[in-house]
């Protein structure tokens, strides 16, 4: 992330959320209020030098000067969750980005909302559920977990009205409805939101492909395999504000070239998932390889993620 955007926060609490999941609470050093955010937002947390990960912010925040995240231990992951679960100490100072939101609630009117969560994917979904209930809007949450012990927010959701909440334990119940079974019962004009493991997101996108794009929203934890032929070709990009022209080699990203050239570009995940490196496209063609932009945003061709997306030809000009 760009140095000018960093927040310095103290880890003030670690609590048990569910089996393998801890809740981490961060607060400002002097009690000053933090930037606000809406349900669906996330931040980038620098866990250790060279180790930054994106986490959904739990909504509502516990206090004006606090943020809270839920982290599931991933033994086969890249180290972020293991470092937090095994090494985080209350009182330690961490750097984070301000909140960003690529999974915000749509402003388009709809007669109802259907929310779909799988495992730790409940973290952005629970905020939408709470917010929609608070606003008095019709909403139903469908939540798949392996068993009660691994179910985050089990006590809270257990108090929800049956017509608002369906909880499925795939490791306990013999007859658990599939995502396809549930989606078949959801009216075509409902707003849909989904977050969960990659197979769930891929199934969601496939099953909702014929619904209006403005009604379908998903949040990924890992990049989709979106590369297309020619995505590794060498190309040039002009940085409008910096006045530089960079040549991007086949195995290089625009982001990497910018950092090598001394350009202070914002970034975090470097996988096209978090949206931190989004820049305006002023002209030229883009080969999109991210998992952030919607089909309509790609069609508009005015934004790209420079950590993974590439230019086609030598006419690309971006706002850096």
Automatic annotation (TrEMBL):
Domain 2Fe-2S ferredoxin-type: 235-320
Stored SUPFAM superfamilies: 2Fe-2S ferredoxin-like, Ferredoxin reductase-like, C-terminal NADP-linked domain, Riboflavin synthase domain-like
Pfam families assigned to the protein according to its UniProt record, in alphabetical order: DmmA-like_N, Fer2
Cofactor(s) needed by this chain: FMN
One term of GO molecular function: 2 iron, 2 sulfur cluster binding
Keyword Iron belongs to the record: yes
Name of protein: Ferredoxin--NADP+ reductase
The keyword Nucleus is assigned to this record: no
Domain FAD-binding FR-type residue range list: 4-106
PANTHER family, alphabetized: CARNITINE MONOOXYGENASE REDUCTASE SUBUNIT, NADH OXIDOREDUCTASE HCR
Keywords recorded for this protein, A-Z: 2Fe-2S, Flavoprotein, FMN, Iron, Iron-sulfur, Metal-binding, Oxidoreductase
């Amino acid at each position: 992330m760009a140095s000018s955007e960093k927040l310095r926060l103290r880890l003030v609490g670690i609590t048990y959320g569910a089996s393998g999941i801890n809740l981490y609470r961060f607060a400002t050093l002097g009690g000053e209020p933090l930037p606000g955010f809406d349900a669906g937002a996330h931040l980038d947390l620098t866990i250790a030098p060279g180790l930054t990960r994106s986490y959904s912010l739990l909504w509502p925040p516990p206090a004006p000067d606090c943020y809270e995240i839920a982290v599931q231990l991933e033994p086969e992951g890249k180290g972020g969750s293991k470092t937090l679960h095994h090494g985080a100490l209350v009182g330690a100072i961490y750097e984070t980005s301000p909140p960003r939101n690529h999974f915000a609630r749509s402003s388009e009117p709809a007669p109802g909302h259907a929310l779909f969560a799988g495992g730790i994917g409940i973290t952005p979904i629970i905020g939408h559920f709470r917010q929609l209930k608070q606003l008095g809007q019709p909403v139903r949450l469908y939540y798949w977990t392996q068993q009660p012990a691994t179910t985050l927010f089990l006590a809270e959701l257990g108090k929800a009205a049956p017509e608002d909440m369906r909880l499925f334990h795939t490791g306990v119940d013999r007859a658990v409805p599939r995502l396809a079974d549930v989606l078949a019962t959801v009216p075509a004009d409902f707003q849909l939101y989904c977050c969960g493991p990659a197979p769930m997101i891929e199934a969601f996108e496939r099953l909702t492909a014929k619904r209006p794009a403005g009604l379908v929203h998903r949040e990924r934890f890992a990049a989709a395999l979106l590369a297309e032929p020619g995505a590794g070709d060498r190309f040039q990009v002009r940085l409008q504000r910096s006045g530089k022209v960079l040549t991007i080699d086949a195995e290089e990203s625009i982001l990497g070239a910018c950092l090598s050239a001394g350009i202070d570009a914002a970034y975090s995940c470097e996988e096209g998932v978090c949206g931190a490196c989004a820049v305006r496209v002023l002209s030229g063609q883009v080969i999109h390889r991210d998992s952030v932009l919607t089909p309509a945003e790609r069609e508009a061709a005015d934004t790209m993620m420079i950590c993974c997306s590439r230019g086609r030809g030598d006419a690309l000009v971006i706002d850096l």
